[in-house]
Amino acid sequence: MKKIALITGGSSGLGYAFAEILGKENYKILILARNQEKIEKSILKLNDQNIEAEGFVCDISDSSQLEQISETIKLKYSKIDFLILNAGVVTPKLLSEYTDIQEIKKDMDIDLMGHIYSTYYFSPLLVSGSKVLMISSGFGLVGSAGYSIYCAAKAGVVNFAESIRRELLHKNIPVYVACPGDMDTPQFEYEITHQADWMKQSSPRKVMPVKKAAGKILNQCKGKHKFLILTGSDVKLLNLVTKILPKKLRDWLVDFMLPRPK
Question: Which of 23, 134, 193, 254 could join 161 via S-S bond, C-beta 3.0 to 4.6 A?
Answer without folding.
Answer: 134
